[in-house]
Structure formats: C-alpha cells, structure tokens
Design brief:
By secondary structure, this protein is an alpha+beta fold. The chain is 32% helix and 30% strand.
Length: 245
C-alpha cells in the first residue's frame, strides 16, 4: 500500500512480503516521476557517441519499493535521486530483504519519504528517506509484524539548479571512481564513499563532511590527522573549480 505526501510519493509498505508477487509486480521506471523534467535539463551528458544519445548520467528514477521486491515503476513509487543513493538502497535494505525472501522468510518492508527539500524546483526532490523492515509471523490466519530486522536512514542531497552548477562535482555525494578521476587517491576516495554508504549517509554540508572524515581517520588502527594529511587535496579540488563541497 502507498500513501502520498501531497502530490508526491510519501510512503510505500509491503506486508506480507514474500518471494511471490502480491498485488504489485516489479517493473522498470515509467515516464512520470517528480522532479525528472529538471533532472533532464541539468544532467545532460553524451551517453553514447555512436548514436548521439544524450541523457542523465548521474541521476535515476529510484524505486521506493525496489523492482526486485515487486515494486512497480509507477509515479507513486518513484523519486528522482542520484545513482549513488540508488546504490546505497540496493546494497543496503533491498539486498538484505531480497536474500531473506529468497530463503522463504516473510517480511514487512516500510519505506517513508520523511521530508522533501524546500524551495521552487527543489521541493520535488526527497531530502530524507527511511526504510524499516522485519519479520512477520502468522497468527489466526493473519500475518502480524514480529521483529524489526533493520533500519536504514538515507539523507539525499539537493540537485543542481542550473547546468553551470551541475558541472561542478559535489564531493558530498560523488562515488569513489568519480573522486579518483578528479585526482584523489584510491584510499581517500574509498574512505569517503564508505563513510557515506556504510556510515551516516550523505554528508549534509562542509562541516559535516569534515567532522565525520576526521572521525574516520581517528578511528583507524593507526590514527591519522585528516586535516593535516588529506584536507589539502579536497581544498585543491574546490579551489580549482572542479568540485564543490
């Protein structure tokens, strides 16, 4: 079942969730998705030089209830999100739930868009999504929620408002390979991605990035001063106009 937030997706709940489809069937994203017209305008890259195919490279129409969990590609189940956020969902709650139902477990799976960004255009893009999932038990021929198995909060960044802004790579949400292509070491790029995908979600701003990365390096087996050893690489990218934070 789904509950909208105004005219945008709000929450989607699948219960009981099993390996067999229920009242919905998984499918690829359809044409309608809040915010997608803006994505197409600002994320325009040459995807295939041979066919002269242009389109979004860093953004996708993301299922709230995954296609692999019988989520349809309909407007009420889609939000515009960065590929990195989509990967975080896929590698986190979706992967765990898929493995469990493949092993004949019966689950509940509850996805909520807690908030959207504010402002014209930005209001169509989710700011925070939370996924809760757990086991269900059968009682008097009805499935009831039993134990919670996971809780996955995800903070999503704002989209660029124009093409010139989109040309700057946002370090807060860029993936490992993209950071390496900018010149960061594999170790630094990997640690940034790991903290974002396995730590506290997307970085909120520059201060949040600095504080969290300082803790990452402080907690290593051989503690390192992030600001002294690594920050100048980040600052150089910002000063060069190649990236933003």
């Amino acid at each position: 079942k789904s509950k909208p937030q105004g005219n945008k997706p709000g929450s989607v709940i699948a219960e009981p969730l099993t390996e067999k489809p229920g009242n919905t069937t998984g499918s690829s994203p359809g044409s309608k998705c809040a915010g997608w017209d803006h994505v197409v305008a600002v994320d325009r890259e040459l995807l295939n030089p041979k066919t002269d195919l242009w389109g979004p490279k860093y953004w996708v129409k993301m299922h709230l209830l995954s296609e692999k969990l019988h989520g349809p590609g309909q407007e009420w189940n889609l939000v515009s999100a960065r590929k990195t956020d989509n990967s975080a969902m896929a590698n986190g709650p979706e992967s765990d739930a898929k493995n469990r139902i493949s092993n004949k477990e019966v689950l509940y799976y509850d996805v909520s868009v807690n908030s959207y960004h504010s402002g014209k255009i930005l209001e169509d893009f989710p700011a925070n999504i939370n996924v809760k999932w757990g086991s269900m038990k059968k009682q008097n021929n009805k499935y009831l929620r039993d134990k919670q198995l996971g809780n996955f909060p995800l903070n999503l960044g704002k989209p660029p408002l124009n093409i010139s802004e989109s040309a700057l790579i946002d370090i807060k949400s860029a993936g490992r390979d993209l950071l390496i292509s900018l010149g960061l070491s594999r170790g630094l790029a990997g640690n940034i991605q790991k903290e974002r995908t396995q730590g506290g979600g997307n970085f909120q701003d520059k201060d949040d990035f600095i504080e969290r990365m300082k803790k990452v390096y402080q907690n290593q087996s051989r503690p390192v001063d992030f600001m002294a050893e690594h920050w100048h690489f980040i600052q150089a990218l910002i000063d060069s106009g190649k990236a933003k934070l």
